[in-house]
Design brief:
By secondary structure, the chain is mainly beta. The protein is built from no helices and eleven strands. β5 (46-52) and β6 form a beta hairpin. It is globular and about 40 Å long.
């Protein structure tokens, strides 16, 4: 059974940093893309960043590029999202997801709350 468990969310002041982690288990993720999404109250879920599990290549949403960094630790089956220079508009529930390259994300975590105060 595949599990994605997020951690590291919390309350931080604008300009601060947080590091989210996603512990993945239940299968090998070779050939997968691991992604981070977020959903703010009253808004649609939106893409934040993803990383190719094998190649390590990354993609970012324009709103977070230059502030957020996604990385993976293959040995620990963990994906991280380092978030710097946080803004109030980054406030959302952040979700980890996994999907085969070129296909829709098929596995999702339960989310972790990030709140940025002004």
């Amino acid at each position: 059974q595949v599990q994605l468990v997020e951690s590291g969310g919390g309350l931080v002041q604008a300009g601060g940093s947080l590091r989210l982690s996603c512990a993945a288990s239940g299968r090998t993720f070779s050939g997968y893309v691991m992604g981070w999404f977020r959903q703010a109250p009253g808004k649609e879920r939106e893409f934040v960043a993803n990383i190719n599990w094998n190649a390590g290549s990354t993609t970012y949403a324009g709103s977070v590029k230059g502030r957020f960094t996604i990385s993976r630790d293959n040995a620990k089956n963990t994906v991280h999202l380092q978030m710097n220079s946080l803004k109030p508009e980054d406030t959302a529930v952040y979700y980890c997801a996994a999907g085969r390259i070129g296909l829709q994300y098929e596995y999702w975590g339960q989310g972790t709350q990030v709140t940025v105060s002004s």
